[in-house]
Specification:
The complex is a heterodimer of chains A (328) and B (574). Chain A is mainly alpha-helical and 328 residues long. Chain A is built from 15 helices and no strands. Chain A has helices at residues 5-36, 41-45, 52-61, 68-80, 94-129, 134-148, 151-164, 183-221, 224-231, 236-248, 250-265, 268-273, 279-289, 292-320, 322-327. In chain A, helix 11 (250-265) packs antiparallel against helix 14. The mean pLDDT of chain A is 85. Chain B is of the alpha+beta class. Chain B is built from 16 helices and 20 strands. In chain B, strands 12, 13, 14, 17, 18, 19 and 20 form a seven-stranded mixed sheet that branches. In chain B, a hairpin with a 5-residue loop joins strand 5 and strand 6. In chain B, helix 9 runs antiparallel to helix 11 (379-388) and helix 15 (495-506) packs antiparallel against helix 16. The relative contact order of chain B is 0.17. The chains are: A mainly alpha (328), B alpha+beta (574). At the A-B interface, helix 2, helix 3, helix 5 and helix 7 of A face helix 1, strand 11, helix 7 and helix 13 of B.
């Protein structure tokens, strides 16, 4: 092994150990929090007016007739064997349950992120460049209002407006006609149903990115190297686009990293309002039903993605900024 | 053996204990015989589709949650039971006319043993599963085998307690013999025997600990008019006519598709209903039902009555409530009719709740005590009763007290139920007028039944979903040294009521049993262990283009194979 590879390997091992420690922490915390919640999984699964003996049998099936420590140890052992277990509610493997919901959240969150970053950067740059003009004041006010709007309220308002013009207000596709459509019609159907939840999620995020980029751009535009570039007679487009924006975008890398977990986590309220069968809704339902295996599976997935996204953001930052590379 | 195969009324039950389990079974069997009052149009463009024409039209149901399991052994949700009825050819057809009735379906006939401890049922040999395998006695035996298996943890395991060891047993491929440990009424025997079977040949090797997760739980092998052709988790379930259905021709579906859409949010569901993107929605809020009636003539809003009630239960072990005069006084203080007017009456003045006087639903017309006069709102009478019971405001602080104990208590209800929270506030104000202080406590919903069962409360507002099978023993029978009745939340004890329950459950004559139930209700109402509040209407909306819909006290989606759409009102052309 070369001497250059050793620090990199050590770094990778430290990162992997950190990831495992975080996953274990999340698993343990999630397990204990569910234990502290009132009631049991059986309470949401069987009618309360059935014989209590049936409730006890169901709890025994879930292992609730064993002490907490034993259940924790068994769950941990299964996890170490890469077994996330079986959902209490559907009795399907947790990986299968998550696998059925994850693609829908990836689609929705991906669409939202695809709107948020390009549009947010464009509006942020425009706002910074047009400093002092009416357009900047207008954009600032709009961004502030949009940033402050709760996404669920926005979702409800959009839904109300859309229902008046006959736009689909719920679901991922047309439940009746989708199967009978041609491929292009199906694509259009998906896009039509994707529009409202995407806009609901994207408006606040776009405003946030725009405000971030504006502040970063204003700082960049006030730097000496920008003055120098202008003094050299470079066009304003080149000054802004090549010199200022490149530096202003560095903090956005962090934002991208922080946004990636949302890609798998989804949004509970928007998914519930639009009947979107994603991870947010799945997690919410698992909490409601105390479906411990599914909830722990979701939490582990989120924790892993957060850790990986942070690592990715660090790596990208180092690639983009020579000063970070120099510091090691 | 004596023979009997006519419609059997249910108003008696010779032994207690099966009631709870039967409530669930009745749901699985619920298939109403009531017809729309209007005569069915003749076949043709405006009439139901002919056999040559084939099914037409699509029904889109709006549902709050996804299908859980379409396996009758493990199904928990009423909504699932309704789809199970559609994809199965049930052993018996349940009907309701003041009481449950049964007529033959997959069970073509039955004979009862003379000792009232058993019956032999004969199966229709023509009925097959969708793969062509006949539905036989082996399937019925296998179904009970699954129910008995602790690994399955079936909610219907309580049925088995009453079977003699070794029963049920097959008598050839198309007959089954059931024997019970003690005599039961005929209707009870049929109810227990009438479990919808599952396919033994398809599930024999299934992992029983994860039966709900078996693919056949979501796309079951059908024996009925409908078959599940698609299930997309959290999105929709699609039913289409079962091409292999071998039941009678008149039971073949008249619709081409039924799509159950999952729309978790109530407001979104309502929007979709108004926009015509779903055709059916239940559990409507009263104000929405009123608005739909007014603004959406294309929808028919049907009121389902007598299945849901609210009550306030007193903890009788609390010394404040041990005296019937206190409980009666607080009932007089509460303006229950005023609350009905305030919360459940629409702008046209129609009340959508009726005063309750017992836990037996008024839908059971023969057994409900219609003669009980609800306690009137009478503050003077309330104050006089409290004075008489020794509760007076001795220290002048505005709160009555007795022996230094103030008439102050917690009034609890489940958090998140806006209706009950409002009721709690109104009752709190009413009690204050007679010198009683109720401190409202909102209980985490999952803890509600634990608190009630543990009698860990002072006063609690809760509700019942009423069964159509009368067995009040669990609710009202006194505890014995060996048994605590799980649903006797107040801790009520009345030997006269116990005797009436025993009599009602063992009495073979319906009329005599009904009198016992009525007298029991009168005694309980006089004792006021509950402040009985009201029976709530359940509004359901369905698009008018659907004909022969069967939405009633038994079922919200009865006899789906009979629903149809006139040819000129088919909405989805393909």
């Amino acid at each position: 092994m070369s001497s250059a590879a050793t620090p990199a390997l050590a770094h990778a091992l430290r990162a992997a150990a950190g990831l495992l420690a975080r996953l274990l922490g999340v698993f343990t915390l999630g397990f204990l929090l569910l234990e502290l919640a009132p009631g049991t999984p059986a309470d949401t699964m069987i009618s309360p007016d059935l014989d209590p003996a049936q409730r006890e049998k169901l709890l025994a099936k879930f292992g609730y007739d064993r002490p907490l420590a034993v259940r924790y140890a068994l769950a941990l052992r299964a996890l170490l064997g890469a077994d996330l277990g079986v959902s209490f509610v559907s009795e399907q493997p947790v990986t299968q349950v998550i696998g059925a919901h994850l693609p829908h959240t990836l689609l929705l969150s991906g669409a939202a992120l695809a709107v948020i970053f390009p549009l947010g950067v464009a509006l942020g740059v425009l706002s910074a460049v047009a400093r002092g003009h009416a357009i900047e004041r207008t954009l600032s006010v709009v961004a502030l209002v949009a940033w402050g709007l709760p996404s669920f309220w926005l979702a409800l308002m959009l839904q109300l407006g859309a229902s008046r013009v006959g736009w689909p207000t719920s679901g991922r596709v047309d439940p009746v006609m989708h199967d009978l459509m041609g491929p292009w019609e199906q694509l259009l159907d998906v896009a039509t149903h994707l529009a409202l939840p995407t806009v609901s999620l994207a408006i606040g995020g776009t405003a946030s990115v725009a405000r971030y980029v504006r502040a970063s751009m204003l700082e960049a535009l006030s730097q000496d190297y920008i003055r120098t570039a202008r003094a050299r007679g470079l066009s304003e487009l080149r000054v802004v686009g090549r010199h200022a924006l490149r530096n202003a975008l560095l903090p956005v890398i962090t934002l991208v990293g922080l946004s990636l977990p949302a890609l798998v986590g989804g949004s509970v309220l928007v998914e519930v309002i639009y009947g979107w069968p994603g991870m947010g809704k799945l997690t919410f339902d698992a909490i409601q039903a105390q479906d411990q295996p599914v909830l722990l599976g979701c939490l582990l997935l989120f924790a892993a993605v957060v850790s990986l996204a942070n690592g990715l953001a660090d790596a990208l930052y180092a690639v983009a900024d020579p000063r970070v590379r120099a510091r090691g | 053996m004596s023979t009997g195969c006519a419609a059997l009324p249910l108003a008696r039950s010779p032994r207690r204990a099966l009631g709870r389990a039967l409530l669930a079974l009745l749901a699985t069997l619920s298939a109403c015989t009531c017809q729309d009052p209007a005569p069915a149009p003749a076949a043709g463009p405006g009439g139901p589709p002919t056999a040559e024409e084939g099914p037409r039209g699509t029904l889109v149901l709006g549902a709050a949650s996804d299908v859980g399991a379409l396996n009758p052994v493990v199904a928990q949700l009423v909504e699932d039971q309704e789809l199970i009825n559609a994809v199965s050819w049930p052993p018996l057809q349940a009907g309701f006319d003041c009481r449950i009735t049964y007529t033959p379906r997959h069970f073509t006939s039955w004979t009862f043993d003379e000792d009232a401890k058993g019956l032999r049922v004969t199966l229709d040999p023509a009925i097959t599963w969708a793969d062509g395998t006949p539905v036989t006695s082996a399937d019925i035996l296998f179904t009970y085998e699954l129910i008995a298996d602790p690994a399955v943890a079936s909610p219907r395991a309580g049925y088995l307690d009453r079977f003699e060891p070794g029963y049920p047993k097959a008598d050839g491929d198309h007959a089954v013999i059931f024997r019970f440990t003690e005599p039961f009424s005929r209707i009870t025997q049929l109810s227990v025997a009438g479990m919808i079977p599952v396919p033994a040949h398809a599930l024999r090797d299934a992992d029983r600990a994860t039966l709900r997760g078996n693919p056949l739980s979501l796309r079951p092998l059908s024996s009925g008019p409908w078959a599940v052709t698609a299930h997309e988790p959290g999105e929709r379930t699609v039913l289409e006519p079962n091409p292999a259905f071998t039941g009678p021709a008149e039971a073949r579906p008249k619709l081409r598709r039924i799509i159950k859409r999952v729309i978790p949010d109530y407001a979104t569901r309502l929007l979709e209903l108004k926009a015509g993107r779903i055709d059916y929605m239940d559990s409507l809020a009263l104000e929405d039902a009123v608005a739909l009636r007014r603004d959406h003539p294309e929808l028919r809003v049907i009121t389902r009555r007598g299945r849901t009630s609210d009550y306030l239960t007193w903890n009788l072990s609390n010394p404040r409530f041990s005296d019937v005069r206190v409980r009666t006084a607080l009932a007089h203080a509460a303006d229950i009719d005023g609350i009905v007017r305030a919360l459940f009456t629409d702008p046209e003045g129609n009340a959508h709740a009726t005063r309750a006087v017992s836990t037996i639903t008024p839908a059971l017309c023969g057994a409900h005590a219609d003669d009980i006069q609800p306690l009137a709102h009478d503050l003077a009478r309330a104050r006089a009763l409290l004075d008489e019971a020794g509760w007076r405001d001795a220290d002048g602080d505005g709160v009555r007290d007795k022996d230094g104990v103030p008439l102050r208590f917690k009034l609890s209800t489940n958090a998140g139920n806006k209706r009950r929270e409002e009721v709690a506030l109104l009752l709190q104000a009413a009690f204050k007028r007679v010198g009683a202080v109720a401190d409202i406590e909102l209980v985490e919903p999952r803890s509600l039944f634990d608190r009630l069962r543990g009698r860990d409360y002072d006063a609690m507002i809760a509700g019942w979903s009423a069964g159509l099978f009368i067995d009040p023993s669990n609710m009202w029978h006194s505890d014995t040294p060996t048994k605590t009745y799980a649903f006797n939340f107040p801790g009520y004890r009345n030997p006269a009521v116990d005797a009436l329950i025993d009599k009602g459950l063992s009495e073979p004559d319906d009329e005599v049993a009904a009198e016992a139930w009525k007298e029991m209700q009168r005694l309980i109402y006089a004792d006021q262990p509950y402040m009985f509040l009201w029976w709530l209407d359940e509004p359901i909306a369905v698009h008018r283009r659907f004909q022969d819909t069967q939405i009633d006290v038994l079922s919200r989606l009865g006899e789906l194979h009979a629903w149809w759409v006139p040819a000129d009102e088919v909405k989805y052309p393909r």
